[in-house]
């Protein structure tokens, strides 16, 4: 096991190592593949952005910005931050590159690390990874909301993520006859039960009453059940939009559960919100959060723009997949096809050529850098879990007849060079 070293990864960060990284790559390739079939292109925004971008987009009062951001002074004395999320960056890029001129909507996805100075625990890190997508510009047709959700569900389905549950809600829009009216009533109702609420909820009641609905505190649950619900206060347009989103989900065969307590705390979030949970994650079981944010691009200085998106927590997605396969990250090995056991002066040149041909054909090949006795070489080949060992000594080279050993059963066969390649290709299919 690892010995304690002088340097260790910073708290809340970690090394992702083989063979686990193979799973990360499979997840990311699947995302690229599925999102591509829905017409999304990849964006790779920078990891540092002006602090002000997040203060605006995520909100200066939010925990993320006020407490959790890694912020530093850049050379020109402007303030920069490591991104805590990427929606703000995508919207900035949309404006900066005049993407409203492109055929709308613009559909973008991203994959990469985010940074939040949170208390580390299972499924919660200070450097974590998100896979997200945004649809910007064009209309706010309910079919867009439904298709975005269908895309995430298709992705999870493709990965066979266990116990996937989709919850949806509509939080209306920020107007007196809609959410603002509701929040006023919610606040009034909260005033009446204030004494029975915990300190967090009492604080949120003032700063952001919707957030009280997020509370996980046991003793607050029966109180929250009695509070007014937003569905009864949506304006006609938002009500119709929500009904249509549900219809569109049904047309796509996407199963959902409605959760009236699912909210987003920021003003520009509106209408559709959703969250997806998965199995095997304990209390950190949300693997995806998303919603509509029609006001955000304008808030950042761009034109009025419709927008909807989601962010998947890739670390949690991986944890859930691992729990399902009951596969500890270190038990499965990286696959090695051929270990070339070479010995002798002429053999190395042939071994190098053989390695090149095999690799070009897509096999993974281990070529020892220095000569080894065959016994030692075969030992190492089986330690590396190689499928085959190719034995090349001066005799084999001179005769043009190569020996291939199947390590699982120890059987050996002789091949000419071209026949060997054919045999390996056939046995792969
Ligand atoms: P949570 O309630 O779990 O803190 P959040 O509301 O902060 O989530 P979002 O900002 O909506 O999460 O991010 C979307 C997803 O990113 C979450 O559903 C989660 O899977 C993942 N995520 C968020 N913060 C972390 C973190 N510190 N470590 C690992 N994953 C995270
Ligand atoms: Mg959080």
Descriptive notes:
The protein is of the alpha+beta class and about 425 residues long. The protein is built from 15 helices and 16 strands. The strands form 3 sheets. The chain has an 8-stranded mixed sheet with strand order 1-5-6-11-10-9-7-8, with helices on both faces. A hairpin with a 5-residue loop joins β15 (about 400-405) and β16 (about 410-415). α1 (about 20-35) runs antiparallel to α5 (about 140-160), α2 (about 50-60) packs across α4 and α5 (about 140-160) runs parallel beside α9. The longest helix has 18 residues, at about 20-35. It is elongated. The chain starts with 19 loop residues before the first helix and ends with a helix. The site of adenosine-5'-triphosphate has 17 residues, from β6, β10, β11 and α11.
Briefly summarize what is shown.
It contains 15 helices and 16 strands. By secondary structure, it is an alpha+beta fold.
């Amino acid at each position: 096991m690892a010995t304690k070293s002088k340097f260790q990864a910073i708290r809340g960060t970690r090394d992702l190592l083989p063979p686990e990284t193979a799973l990360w790559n499979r997840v990311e390739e699947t995302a690229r593949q599925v999102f591509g079939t829905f017409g999304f292109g990849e964006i790779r925004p920078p990891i540092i952005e002006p602090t002000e971008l997040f203060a605006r987009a995520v909100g200066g009062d939010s925990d993320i910005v006020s407490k959790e951001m890694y912020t530093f002074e850049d050379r020109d004395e402007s303030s920069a931050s490591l991104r805590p999320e990427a929606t703000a960056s995508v919207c900035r890029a949309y404006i900066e590159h005049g993407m409203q001129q492109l055929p709308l909507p613009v559909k973008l996805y991203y994959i990469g690390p985010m940074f939040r100075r949170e208390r580390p625990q299972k499924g919660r890190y200070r450097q974590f990874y998100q896979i997200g997508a945004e649809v910007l510009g064009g209309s706010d047709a309910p079919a867009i909301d439904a298709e975005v959700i269908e895309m995430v569900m298709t992705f999870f389905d493709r990965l066979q993520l266990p116990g996937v549950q989709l919850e949806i809600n509509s939080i209306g829009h920020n107007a007196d006859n809609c959410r603002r009216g509701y929040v006023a009533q919610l606040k009034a109702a909260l005033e009446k039960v204030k004494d029975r609420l915990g300190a967090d909820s009492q604080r949120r009641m003032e700063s952001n009453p919707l957030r009280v609905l997020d509370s996980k505190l046991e003793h607050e649950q029966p109180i929250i059940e009695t509070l007014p619900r937003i569905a009864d206060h949506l304006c006609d347009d938002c009500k119709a939009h929500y009904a249509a989103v549900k219809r569109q989900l049904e047309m796509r065969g996407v199963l959902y559960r409605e959760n009236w307590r699912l909210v987003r705390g920021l003003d520009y979030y509106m209408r559709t919100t959703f969250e997806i949970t998965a199995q095997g994650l304990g209390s950190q079981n949300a693997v995806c959060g998303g919603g509509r944010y029609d006001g955000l691009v304008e808030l950042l200085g761009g034109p009025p723009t419709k927008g909807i998106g989601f962010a998947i927590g890739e670390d949690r997605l991986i944890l859930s997949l691992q729990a399902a396969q009951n596969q500890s990250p270190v038990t499965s090995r990286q696959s090695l096809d051929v270990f070339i056991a070479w010995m002798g002066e002429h053999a190395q040149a042939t071994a190098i050529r053989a390695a090149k041909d095999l690799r070009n054909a897509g096999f993974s090949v281990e070529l020892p850098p220095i000569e080894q006795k065959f016994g030692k070489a075969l030992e190492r080949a089986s330690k590396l879990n190689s499928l085959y060992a190719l034995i090349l000594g001066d005799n084999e080279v001179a005769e043009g007849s190569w020996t291939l050993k199947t390590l699982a059963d120890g059987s050996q066969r002789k091949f000419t060079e071209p026949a060997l390649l054919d045999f390996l290709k056939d046995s792969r299919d």
